[in-house]
Write a structure and sequence with these properties.
- The complex is a heterodimer of chains A (313) and B (173).
- With 313 residues, chain A is mostly helical.
- Chain A has one domain: Formate dehydrogenase/DMSO reductase domain (Formate dehydrogenase/DMSO reductase fold), CATH 1.20.1630.10.
- In chain A, 68% of the residues lie in helices and 2% in strands.
- Chain A is built from 12 helices and 1 strand, in the order βαααααααααααα.
- Chain A is globular, with a radius of gyration of 21 Å.
- Chain B has 173 residues and is α+β, with helices and mostly antiparallel strands.
- Chain B has 2 domains: 109 residues, Alpha-Beta Plaits (2-Layer Sandwich), CATH 3.30.70.20; 57 residues, 2-Layer Sandwich (Alpha-Beta Plaits), CATH 3.30.70.20.
- Chain B is 20% helix and 23% strand.
- Chain B has 6 helices and 10 strands, in the order βαββαββαββααβαββ.
- In chain B, strand 2 and strand 3 form a beta hairpin.
- Chain B is globular and about 50 Å long.
- Classes of the chains: A mainly alpha (313), B alpha+beta (173).
- Chains A and B meet through strand 1 and helix 4 of A and strand 2, helix 3 and strand 6 of B.
- The site of one iron/sulfur cluster has 14 residues of chain B, from helix 3.
């Protein structure tokens, strides 16, 4: 029998034997970033194609959630920083090689934009609404006048935001599970699907929900396809990728991933959505809840599992 | 730097010297010993390796740092400016050698090759303290430096070259 035993004298709690530095804060942050990206993308999209009236929840009401989600996400990121008082250093430079840097800048821009977007619809949503100050009223009419280019900018930024949540992880070549280029698109699709789920949950209009549900089915199926693709890549990969593969095939993340993320978070809700479109009665909160739950679990699993995978030397 | 794995006895003097020289807080380390045993009893082969930051030429920790706190100085040493560091941990995640840690005060810390000593023309503390003289330090571009001479006459390897980081810590075999 050939054996190899390695003992390292490095005993740093969060780093050895397995890295465990990023916890729930990062998972939550990635989840909320994708969610907000999804909500804003479809709000802008339906506005641009002129469906503001028919899709009023998606375009107006649901966007309330976006700044809230971004605020909670940013707070949880801030909470995770170990040198908190220096956080403003993030905004003294732009470093394109660091996703953390351009992602933080994107957030800094999209966060106020999402508030402005919601604010510009206040009078639509609450007819008695009144901005007390004159220049707020002027600013409002300015925004309303240029809402179309505004929507285009929002749509563009929301794609960057959602894709960034994946690229943040995939940029780390030291962690083989994350270091796959498909992670960006996968997080984008998953984030958009959670955004759609939120709008679907809030909408009281059956026609609107049906349209959202149709798009969501497409997104979930794409996500499933990308997941299969991801694992095919691992299966055909080098030793470190196989190690990542094994964590999900019999390893400690098998149940949390395949049962909670894939079955409960994707396959089950997509089946319900298809049934609902075909006239079966499904409680309207069930598919969105499952999708949101699956999306959150997905981030937890990826952040945790990724830190376990490493180069073997 | 070059580490002679044939001479290292795993005494961890380098670890203690580093902790003293650099005030490394309790429970953390900038360098550490890895013990590797191979074979079938009774014919076993044991190897000691003193490890630390590899001062990578293509350093992923520098690439992913959002604030520029992690940077490479002239001569190739990778440093962290504590007052620029926000403690996001991106560089810790990015290092394939897990050579960084978060200092209890919040910033990230790692081996600096004792830059405060090197600037004065001295060796890093670990190099000077090693009782078996197994650590060789110096400028790799200078053919007469201790490290260049050590590398010239011996076969060597680096850790995880497949990570693409171009590590600058050489192990003599
Ligand atoms: S060993 Fe790690 S910390 Fe040191 S330069 Fe390379 S990647 Fe950075
Ligand atoms: S923890 Fe500090 S040095 Fe490391 S990437 Fe973040 S800001 Fe840069």
């Amino acid at each position: 029998m050939k054996e190899e035993l390695m003992v390292s004298g490095k005993h740093i709690a969060e780093i050895y034997p397995v890295l465990h530095l990023w916890h729930w804060e990062i998972s939550l942050y990635l989840f909320l970033g994708g969610l907000a990206g999804g909500i804003l993308f479809f709000a802008a999209y339906f506005f641009i194609i002129g469906k503001e009236k028919e899709m009023s929840t998606t375009v107006k009401w649901a966007t309330f959630i976006a700044p809230l989600a971004l605020m909670i996400g940013l707070s949880s990121l801030l909470y995770d920083l170990h040198h908190k008082l220096y956080f403003w250093r993030l905004f003294t430079t732009v470093r394109f090689t660091s996703p953390m840097s351009w992602g933080a800048w994107t957030l800094l821009i999209i966060f106020p934009l999402s508030i402005i977007w919601v604010a510009s619809f206040m009078k639509d949503m609450f007819p008695n609404w009144n901005w007390k100050w004159k220049y707020l009223n002027q600013f409002e009419s300015f925004v309303i006048k240029y809402r179309l280019p505004f929507a285009w900018i929002l749509m563009f930024l929301s794609i960057i935001l959602a894709v960034y949540t994946g690229i943040l992880l995939s940029a780390f070549n030291a962690r083989p599970l994350w270091n796959v280029s498909i992670l960006g698109p996968l997080f984008l699709v998953s984030g958009f699907s959670t955004g759609l789920a939120t709008s679907m949950w809030l909408s009281k209009n059956d026609a609107e929900r049906r349209i959202l549900s149709r798009i969501d089915i497409f997104f979930i199926l794409t996500e499933l396809f990308l997941i299969i693709h991801l694992f095919m890549g691992f299966m055909a990969g080098t030793a470190v990728k196989l190690e990542a593969f094994r964590l999900f095939m019999g390893g400690s993340f098998t149940i949390s991933f395949w049962i909670f993320v894939v079955l409960l978070g994707l396959i089950f809700p997509v089946t319900l959505e298809i049934l609902e479109l075909n006239g079966y009665h499904v409680p309207k909160w069930v598919p969105p809840l499952l999708i949101l739950f699956g999306g959150l679990m997905f981030r937890f699993v990826m952040v945790d599992a990724g830190q376990i995978t490493r180069f073997l030397y | 730097m070059a580490v002679d794995t044939k001479k290292c006895v795993g005494c961890a003097d380098c670890v203690v010297a580093c902790q003293t020289e650099n005030n490394v807080p309790h429970g953390f380390c900038r360098d550490w010993i890895v013990e590797n045993v191979k074979g079938t009893y009774p014919s076993l082969d044991m190897k000691f390796q003193s490890e630390r930051c590899n001062q990578c030429e293509n350093a992923p920790c520098v690439r992913c740092c959002p604030t520029g706190a992690s940077h490479i100085v002239e001569g190739g040493i990778v440093l962290v400016t504590h007052d620029d560091c926000i403690g996001c941990g991106a560089c810790v995640e990015a290092c394939p050698y897990d050579a960084r840690y978060i200092h209890p005060q919040g910033y990230v810390d790692k081996c600096t090759f004792c830059i405060q000593r090197v600037d004065k023309g001295q060796n890093p503390a670990c190099v000077d303290v090693c009782p078996t003289y197994c650590l060789h330090f110096g400028d790799l571009d200078d053919p007469n430096s201790d490290v260049s001479k050590a590398l010239k006459n011996r076969s060597w390897y680096v850790l995880a070259p497949e990570a693409g980081t171009e590590p600058q810590l050489y192990y003599l075999r």
